[in-house]
Specification:
globular, UDP-n-acetylglucosamine1-carboxyvinyl-transferase, Chain
Length: 449
């Protein structure tokens, strides 16, 4: 590892562009996860616009969070590495204190970085441009453009304001009442961050409950955020910096939980996992499938519920993932689709149109790649039907440049008969740079590059 401008960079081995792996006789061990990506973004960004200094520890080492840190540095925020890996000292500039960047802000592959920063930059009195890699530039931004414009913001994007780059000229903002067309924590947060400096309270109506890390952390920092059912009212507020110990990412834990419950001889313990109820859809789905996943040592850290999770070999049955449950498990659908391959019956995923505008069209990607491994998967406009019980066999599969697909295919390959080669595995660095090392430690077998 090295630090450039105080931000950790991975420099050890050259990137692994493909890996070849096979099923092992035993899958066992203890996993310490990288910090939760969603909470890491927020801990860095919210402290950057607060008053005072804070220590953020166990920050996610993934490329997405590094993109947020670099953008904040370009906006004048002082970020220094602490004494331990993953620990940073952040000196906030207040809700109106960021400075004009002298170059375009590159969010890389991170939709969270782009969308959350748009809410912050909407009121800063300068010009800025947010862009990203080819994948991010193909993803929609109109969901943040529309409400921020209603608040008085000046935003322009390409493709008739639908896709990045996103140009912003900060203006004074107004409180509004807005109904989200779909449940989205990123859009909700962008509006909330803009509402902190609006001239009056802003009310957001949600069609379903999305993850609430933003509300929890902003309240801890002194913001006035009221909750009434699915509606939130955000009052103009100043923030005070707070120290944050980021819990392990449950989205990262999901790969090991599924690997363990699908393997015929497995027991995996995952430590210090964030189990916020708005993020535990994956646990609810696995429970409905009959998976042996136990929650141990429950506790609270920084306002977030945390626990250790233990997963063991299980006999799985099919289930349905839809509605509110789908919202709370949207990021885990690729790995849950792998679990469905080992379940008895047909698992149905619906209400999942959002999967088509992720890092890849995940509905198409799941159908294509699991199909190559021998799974029986039907594509639907809003989801999937996975017919379990078809043995998986080794094949060459692709990640589509999507970190969750890369890791899901690796898990599927480690459960399939014969050898599986996963292409473009560097995508995993977006959220989980140590994924391959952890897989090797649990299986007792190194994947071949």
């Amino acid at each position: 590892m090295r630090y450039t401008n105080g931000i950790m960079e991975k420099t050890a081995a050259p990137p692994i562009s493909k890996v070849t792996l096979a099923r092992t006789n035993r899958l066992a061990g203890t996993v310490v996860l990288p910090g939760d990506k969603s909470i890491s973004h927020r801990a860095a960004l919210f402290n950057a616009i607060a008053t005072g200094s804070a220590t953020v520890s166990n920050l996610s080492p993934g490329a997405d969070v590094v993109s947020t840190l670099r953008c904040l540095q370009q906006l004048g925020v002082t970020i220094e590495p602490g004494n331990r890996q993953g620990t940073y000292e952040i000196t906030g500039l207040g809700t109106r204190g960021l400075t004009e960047p002298n170059d375009v802000l590159d969010a890389g592959n991170s939709g969270t970085t782009l969308r959350l920063l748009s809410g912050v930059l909407a009121h800063h009195p300068f010009f800025s441009v947010l862009t990203g890699d080819a994948s991010l530039r193909s993803r929609p931004v109109y969901r943040v453009v529309e409400p921020l414009r209603l608040m008085g913001a000046s935003l322009t994007a390409r493709d008739d304001d639908r896709r990045p780059p996103l140009a912003i000229r900060g203006t004074e903002l107004y409180g509004i009442e807005y109904t989200l067309p779909v449940a989205s924590a990123q859009v909700k947060t962008a509006i909330t961050l803009a509402a902190l400096v609006a001239d009056a309270p802003t009310t957001i109506h949600q069609p379903a409950l999305s993850r609430d890390h933003t509300e929890l952390m902003l309240r801890a920092m002194g913001a006035v955020v009221e909750e009434d059912g699915l509606s939130l009212t955000i009052h103009p507020s100043d923030l005070k910096a707070i120290n944050v110990e980021v819990p392990g990412d449950i989205s990262s834990a999901a790969f090991w939980l599924v690997a363990a419950v699908c393997h015929p001889n497995a027991e995996v313990r995952v430590l210090n996992v964030g189990v916020n109820p708005t993020r535990t859809g994956v646990l609810e789905v696995l429970k409905a499938m009959g998976a042996d996943v136990q929650l141990e040592n429950p506790r609270t850290s920084g306002g977030e519920p945390v626990a250790d999770l233990v997963a063991r070999s299980s006999q799985l049955k099919a289930t349905e993932i839809a509605g509110d449950l789908l919202v709370n498990a949207i990021d885990e659908i690729p790995i849950l689709a792998v679990a469905a391959c080992f379940a008895e019956g047909a698992t149905v995923v619906r209400d999942a149109q959002e999967l088509r505008v992720k890092e890849s069209d995940r509905i198409k990607s799941i159908v294509q790649e699991l199909g190559r491994l021998g799974a029986s998967v039907e594509e639907r406009e809003d989801g999937l039907v996975i017919h379990g019980g078809q043995p998986l066999h080794g094949a060459t599969v692709e990640s589509h440049g999507d970190h969750r697909m890369a890791m899901s295919m690796a898990v599927a390959g480690s459960l399939a008969k014969g050898e599986t080669t996963v292409l473009d595995t560097t995508a995993a660095d977006i959220s989980y740079p140590t994924f391959w090392e952890t897989l090797a430690s649990l299986s007792g077998k190194e994947a071949r590059a």
